[in-house]
Amino acid sequence: MIAALCGGVGAARFLRGLVEVVDPGEVTAIVNTGDDVVLHGLHVSPDLDTVTYTLAGAVSQERGWGLEGETWAAMDALRRYPSSLAWFSLGDRDLATHLFRTQRLREGASLSTLTAEVAAAWGVGVTVLPVTDDRLETLMDVAGEGEIGFQDYFVRRRHAVAVRAVRFRGAGASKPAPGVLDALADAEVVVVCPSNPIVSIGPLLAVPGVRDAVAAVRERVVAVSPIVAGAALKGPADRLLAELGHEVSVVGVARLYAGLAATLVVDEADAALAGAVEAEGMRCVVAPTVMRGPAEAAALARVVLGAA
Amino acid sequence: MIAALCGGVGAARFLRGLVEVVDPGEVTAIVNTGDDVVLHGLHVSPDLDTVTYTLAGAVSQERGWGLEGETWAAMDALRRYPSSLAWFSLGDRDLATHLFRTQRLREGASLSTLTAEVAAAWGVGVTVLPVTDDRLETLMDVAGEGEIGFQDYFVRRRHAVAVRAVRFRGAGASKPAPGVLDALADAEVVVVCPSNPIVSIGPLLAVPGVRDAVAAVRERVVAVSPIVAGAALKGPADRLLAELGHEVSVVGVARLYAGLAATLVVDEADAALAGAVEAEGMRCVVAPTVMRGPAEAAALARVVLGAA
Distance from the CA of A57 to the CA of which of A22, B4, B6, B41 falls in 20 to 30 A? Predict the structure, then answer.
């Protein structure tokens, strides 16, 4: 059994490679829900959908999120109205997922139950779990503005504002979703996917019990650095790390993960920093980590499994 | 000033004719919200939308509701999931209206405020008012099942089940929306549109103050019979009237409206019943009432205005 701690695009691409190497039924993806947002009354779970759509082979190759061949009639029509939410694009077919999710929540289903239903509907064999069924909300404390929601930061402001702090509202009172702690305890390998350590992996670790469950199996935990040659491949991880006082390098990542993971996989571009990573108390494995397609993702998955 | 008590398709078609005859700015449409339903978390107001889309010239000619040239990508995609709501079709562009409405309600806007915003966005000059900003819910007591929601009855069961009673939940505690009572008091003519007396006009009259406000200006109130030659032109009005013990004829309609309206316009097909209508205490005007297009609707509007 393999458990993976997941954010969105980077994690989804890694999982897509992983299921080329192992039986999908052996894999549990534990996915960030701190990015979840209620828009127009609809419950949107961006990371869960990115993981499911990617594993289904249905994700937009160009965007990395949303569906390939999507249409945008609803959003186009929304522009007629003085909507406060036109900045968040919801594709027509993607809307169906949010309509279904919202209705199931209204019917009393838990997020983990309906997420399994969504994954099954897409024929995804991986067990896709939200980290928690409780409301968890990543808030960004932005200079001059105060706290704003993650999507407001990420989509509306295109992560182009300075962040002073990050908070996971609701985390303290949240419980891991059914299956999360068992998946971590039972896993032969736990993968910390190449996701943003602050806003993708951070919320997972903020759910009481998860950090301890990962640390308890530290020897079997392999993290993949999302920082390559001092920069994030995608998104604001580099900027956020710097703004919050972390070193923007694989060494900075090692300092964040050393208590949780015995091994850090870094890209060949960072080979020279392997010694510095090991000085932080982690084994360092150097390998190609940039996943341009499923073949490279599968190769990276083999490296990760071999490193455990 | 003209005030119109409105349900959906029949009322919308009448209004479309009325604005050919008078300045739209002189017209206030007071619209049923008992059909409103929250689906997938979205607030859907079928009659308000039918009135607005029809006045905008954007309604589907074939269906009478929804938008012309609509696409259905979201609903098609919803079929992938085990949704309990696939029986209710929401077009992609129509969804934008529900997204906007739901978001505005979440922002604290009243239904009447956002309805005015929707009407303005469509360039509709008529004042479109929900009868109330409060939640009003038409419930159908169905033999063998008990109470079900109106859309469940109308759409899911295609009104093919026997109704024992109709109730307007929330009506007792509701208040007329701002402008409703003034529009009735100030109108030179109040039109009871050719809508279902039980489930379209009924909810309007169930809002405290509305029935009295209409009755107070009875001499200026003109109703158009939705029953022609003993049958409804559209929908279950005939069946419902019979099931609830009313006569399915213009005389039965006269008995329902005699306390509210001085005049009943009946179709030429019912000319022979004019005396029986007058015996119920209403003036009876005989005219073509079947609106195949805007020209016939405009002619009917002229008859109604002339009858007041």
Answer: B41
